[in-house]
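Figure 2 data, in text form.
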Amino acid sequence: MNSKIIHDINAINRLFETKINSIKLIFRASENGFSIKQFHKKCDGQSGTLLVVENEYGKIIGGYTPVAWSSARKQWAADKSLKSFIFSLNMREKFGLNLAQFAIANNPEKGPIFGCCDICIVDNSNKDRSNAEFPISYNNGKYIRSP
């Protein structure tokens, strides 16, 4: 695995129902640029993607979706298989998709978005603030979001 954030594939394998033997890196913001245009250039049309993010506090979060990314237009993309999930490695928590119609958001003006902004990566995320506000579309039953 060619990751600067995750050094042990077992940390990722614990999240999946079946074992992953290898992961192919298709985009690394620190090398390809923190531009959403670069993200979409490399990731549009790609399905079965794993997002791994380390925030400014050293917390590692991410998400997986079997749904392909697209920047053609703003639209929600459903995952009827319910295999999409988000996670926090620091908390050792996995949050399953509970609103299938909001698995990911395809948006030419943003980077990867899981759910209704459960995880939302913006353009120039190394300078501008991205956000993670789960649980909204994803949950594991342990946390309740106040209205």
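Caption note: The chain has one domain: 9-139.
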